[in-house]
Amino acid sequence: MPKPLKDLGNCPACGSAEVNAIWFGMPAWDYEQTWPSNAQVGGCLVSDSNPDRACTNCGLTWISPDGNRLGL
Prior knowledge:
Number of helices: 1
Order of helices and strands: EHEEE
Helix content: under 10%
């Protein structure tokens, strides 16, 4: 499995560092083999209002305050 994305910050609700980047758009068929371990599929409809972070601890989703929507 590919290595995870850089530090994605902490959850604003629970403070957990277990945060995933949410990526929207049509993934390649083998995305599970090539995507970083802390990126997840958000859906195929892309919008500026889509959340781009998800806490794996409490389930909160939000838009990153730093504007780094891909987590790269």
